[in-house]
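Quick log. Single chain, no ligands specified.
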Amino acid sequence: MNAQEMFDCKLCGQCCKGFGGTYVDETDIRKICDYIKADPDTFVEKYCDMSGSRPVLTLGQDGCCIFFDSEKQCTIHPVKPYMCRAWPFIKALISHPENWDIMANSCPGMKKGVPPGDISGIAAQEKEKLDRAFNR
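-> predicted structure:
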């Protein structure tokens, strides 16, 4: 099994809703600011809420990320945050593959019933690829 067999994005935008928020770090903030021509010094104040000590992108009235548009989809797609690029192969799946089917209840592109060993292994591979791409 490979990542493409486990996940086929349907461009539905469900991953852009709530789910505890999309964390952004300094790198994400800088890239988004460059893209939308925003001031990095006021980005968190204007576009984020705090979750503990970490900024998460604010949700709009519809419960979606403020950068999501129902027609255009992600309006910051070329610079979308690391957390968004990782979906659905999030780090937690490496040690908790049992979360896959729970996540799949909200995401029609995720195949249910994948063996836990495949989930952990592929999540680790995808994280490694993403980390290399993001120089992390």
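The CA atoms of residues 89 and 126 lie 7 Å apart.
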